[in-house]
Design goal:
This protein is an alpha/beta fold. The chain is built from 11 helices and 15 strands. The strands form 3 sheets. The chain has a 7-stranded parallel β-sheet with strand order 3-2-1-4-5-6-15, with helices on both faces. The protein starts with 5 loop residues before the first strand and ends in a 23-residue tail after the last strand.
C-alpha cells in the first residue's frame, strides 16, 4: 500500500487516547472521530491528545454514516461498549459503507458462541460490501496467541488453567457495572450469580435470550478451542463476587464500595472437549485495593507441566497496541466477520503500517 492508512476513531474515551496516538506514531492518518459525549464533540483530536491541533474534529455518532462516506477510511477503530448488541450499530454503519472495522469490545474477539445471530448478520453484510470486521485487544494476545503458541511446546495437554485480573477502574462505568462492582452480595447473587447452576445447554440458551451476559472467558475459550482444533462438548460459567476488607472509593462509579460488598467479580468458565482437554479459565475484574495489580497466570497440565506468569501487564496500553498492530492484517483479510485466530499471529510494526498492507 503506497498511501497512509486512513483511520476513523469511533469512541473518544480513555482507550482512544492510546489508540489514536498509536495509530499516528505507526504512520497512520486520522481522518475522523466520533463520539456521543457533548463534552468532546466539536473538539480537535489534537486537543484530546494534548498535542497541536490536527484539523480533525470529533463528530457526533449520529453523523457516522455521513463521515464515513466523506472520508472513505481504510479502517474504523471502535472503542465503545463491551457487548455485540451494544456494538452492532457501529459495526453496521461501517459494513454498510464497506469500511473495515476493528473493536476493543471483549465479546467481539469471538462472538460466534454468544451472539451468533448478530455476528452472522454482520458477517453477511460485510461480505456483501467487501469489508472485514473483527475484535482485538489484550485477550487476543495474552489469553490467545501466547497460550496457543506455548501449547505447541507440549507433548500432552490434559488441562489448561488461566487466571487474569484487571482493574475495572481503567475501563469505564459500563464495564464496572457489568462486573457487579458496588452491589451488595445479596443483590449480586440476585442479579448476576443466580444463573451459576445452569448446565451447558441452559447457559447457552440463557445467553441467547439475554438473561446471562457471557464473561470474557466464555468467548476466549471458544477462540482457544477454534485455534487448537478442539471440539467443545460442554461449557459452563460461574460468576463469584469479589470483596475487600475495607471501604474502597471508585472514581469510575463515583461511590465508595463498602467493605464486604462486591468490588467486582471472578467469572469462571469450564470447557470440556471431545479430545479430553479441559479449559478452566477465569477473569477477575474488580476495583483494586492499594496492594492489587494486574496478573495473567496460565498453567498447562500434562507432559511436561508448564506455567507462565505475567505480573503488572499494562493492560490498557497492551490492548491498544495489539489492536493497532492488527490493522494491516484486518485490511488484507477476506471479507466478513473474521475472528483473529484465523489471522496470522500478531507482530510488531517496525515500518509504517501501510507498508504491511498487501491488498492495495
Amino acid at each position: 500500500m503506497e498511501n497512509k492508512v486512513k483511520v476513523v476513531q469511533y469512541g473518544c474515551g480513555k482507550m482512544s487516547l492510546y489508540l489514536m496516538r498509536y495509530v499516528l506514531e505507526h504512520g497512520g492518518e486520522l481522518v475522523g472521530a466520533l463520539d456521543l459525549n457533548p463534552k468532546v464533540i466539536g473538539k480537535d483530536i489534537g486537543e484530546l491528545l494534548g498535542i497541536k491541533p490536527l484539523g480533525v474534529k470529533v463528530s457526533s455518532v449520529e453523523e457516522a454514516d455521513k463521515l464515513l462516506k466523506e472520508t472513505q477510511p481504510d479502517v474504523c477503530v471502535i472503542a465503545t461498549r463491551s457487548t455485540m448488541e451494544d456494538l452492532k450499530p457501529a459495526f453496521t454503519v461501517c459494513a454498510e459503507n464497506g469500511v473495515n472495522a476493528i473493536s476493543t469490545c471483549e465479546e467481539a474477539l469471538y462472538p460466534w458462541n454468544s451472539s451468533y445471530d448478530i455476528t452472522k448478520e454482520l458477517d453477511e453484510l460485510a461480505k456483501k460490501n467487501g469489508c472485514t470486521l473483527c475484535g482485538s485487544g489484550y485477550p487476543d494476545m495474552y489469553w490467545g496467541s501466547l497460550i496457543t503458541t506455548l501449547a505447541g511446546s507440549m507433548h500432552k495437554i490434559t488441562k489448561i488453567r488461566g487466571v487474569s485480573s484487571y482493574n475495572v477502574e481503567d475501563y469505564g462505568i459500563a464495564l464496572a457495572e457489568g462486573h457487579g462492582a458496588g452491589l451488595s452480595i445479596e443483590k449480586f447473587e440476585k442479579e448476576i450469580g443466580n444463573y451459576n447452576g445452569l448446565n451447558h445447554e441452559e447457559t447457552a440458551q440463557a445467553i441467547k435470550d439475554g438473561k446471562v451476559v457471557p464473561s470474557y472467558m466464555w468467548n476466549q475459550n471458544g477462540w482457544l478451542c477454534s485455534q487448537l482444533g478442539l471440539t467443545i462438548k460442554s461449557q459452563t460459567q460461574k460468576c463469584i463476587p469479589m470483596t475487600h476488607k475495607e471501604d474502597l472509593y471508585s472514581s469510575t462509579l463515583n461511590m465508595t464500595v463498602k467493605a464486604g460488598d462486591a468490588t467486582g467479580m471472578s467469572a469462571i468458565v469450564t470447557t470440556e472437549t471431545e479430545e479430553g482437554v479441559t479449559l478452566e479459565t477465569q477473569c477477575q475484574g474488580y476495583v483494586y485495593g492499594p496492594d492489587d495489580f494486574d496478573k495473567n497466570d496460565w498453567t498447562f497440565e500434562g507432559e511436561p507441566e508448564t506455567s507462565i506468569k505475567v505480573d503488572r501487564p499494562a493492560t490498557v496500553e497492551l490492548t491498544c497496541a495489539t489492536l493497532v498492530n492488527r490493522i494491516p492484517m484486518l485490511i488484507d483479510a477476506e471479507a466478513g466477520y473474521i475472528t483473529t485466530e484465523k489471522l496470522p499471529v500478531n507482530h510488531y510494526l517496525v515500518k509504517p503500517m501501510h507498508k504491511y498492507v498487501k491488498s492495495k
